[in-house]
Write a structure and sequence with these properties.
This protein is 70% helix and 1% strand. It is mainly α.
Length: 323
């Protein structure tokens, strides 16, 4: 009877010569260990954070997550304002970056002339390699003064009655942090989105054109609809970068441990709080609190990414997942 090797590619390994059998086993072992290293690394990081945060967890308990105050003098610590700043800045970054990234990817894939596609794509990829500290310096000395003098002043003048744009306004604020993070994740999301759109079969476009669709209808129905799961995945990658961004955010967010209704006032994120406070942590409790802030950041990242993955699964179409 003919052996079925489709279900198990290594089913016939026993019939191979000894050197090839050992080669197959070695390859399988190396790939298995490589996969397990990821899980081990995650467990090690989790252990270090939990071990370092034990004192703070025993002192503050679950109230640490709901306490909006941060006062090292009285040792009154809470992470709620940091969680708020992290979620809001990441949301601002995604709202700005994702539409711009997808629009740029569509232009590079379907609309740009051939002579412009590669140079523009190379520029976008080089922007992704710029260190975050450089973005922070640019944001601090170039972007935030311009934002304060023009858009922020205009928003406060015309929409100051809305709490989101209320007075007083500050150049270094939550909105500035969200904008700088949006600029930083824009190249990443654009590059990934471009590769996803390039993978859409030309047959999709040709069929839509054959039915009399306009260029916009082809892009909307045949391209974006086909690639929506991949584009959501690109947005999730950008979200992961936004949640963990540290130095650039620290330089432009203002570093104020308060929950402000206005986006034009200073704030703090979980990552920027760790970066700015760790050098000043002199007691065991203050260091342990920062470890717990790191643990909260990991938890927020996991929760948000799980939610994003569930959203991606909810928009799957039958047959869109490969076996």
């Amino acid at each position: 009877m003919e052996k079925n090797l489709t279900a198990n590619p290594l089913a016939g390994a026993a019939d191979l010569p000894a050197p090839k059998r050992w080669g197959n086993r070695l390859f399988e072992s190396v790939t298995f260990l490589s996969a397990m290293m990821i899980a081990v690394l995650f467990l090690v990081v989790g252990y270090v954070l939990i071990h370092g945060a034990r004192l703070a967890m025993g002192t503050f308990g679950w109230g640490f997550l709901t306490n909006p105050h941060w006062n090292p003098v009285t040792e009154n610590y809470g992470a709620l304002s940091f969680i708020f700043g992290t979620v809001v800045t990441s949301a601002i970054a995604l709202i700005i970056a994702v539409p711009l990234s997808v629009g740029t990817a569509v232009f590079l894939t379907d609309l740009a002339p051939i002579w412009l596609r590669q140079p523009l794509s190379s520029v976008i990829e080089m922007l992704a390699a710029v260190p975050s500290i450089i973005w922070g310096l640019w944001g601090l000395f170039v972007l935030t003064p311009w934002l304060h003098d023009h858009p922020y002043t205009w928003l406060n003048t015309h929409f100051g009655n809305i709490p989101l744009f209320g007075s007083p306004i500050s150049a270094c604020c939550i909105m500035s942090a969200g904008i700088i993070v949006a600029v930083m994740i824009l190249p990443i999301v654009t590059s990934v989105s471009r590769e996803i759109l390039r993978s859409v079969p030309d047959l999709q476009r040709e069929a839509a054109y054959g039915l009399g669709a306009t260029r916009w209808e082809v892009t909307r129905i045949a391209v974006l609809s086909y690639a929506r799961r991949g584009l959501m995945g690109a947005a999730v990658l950008g979200l992961g970068r936004a949640l963990g961004e540290t130095m650039a955010v620290t330089m432009v967010i203002g570093n104020s441990p308060k929950i402000q209704a206005s986006l034009l006032q200073p704030g703090w994120t979980l990552a920027s709080a760790i970066a700015s406070q760790f050098g000043e942590a002199s007691s065991d409790l203050s260091r342990s609190v920062l470890f717990e802030v790191g643990l909260v950041l990991v938890g927020v990242t996991i929760i948000v990414n799980i939610g994003a993955l569930l959203l991606i699964r909810s928009i799957e179409t039958p047959g869109s997942r490969r076996a």
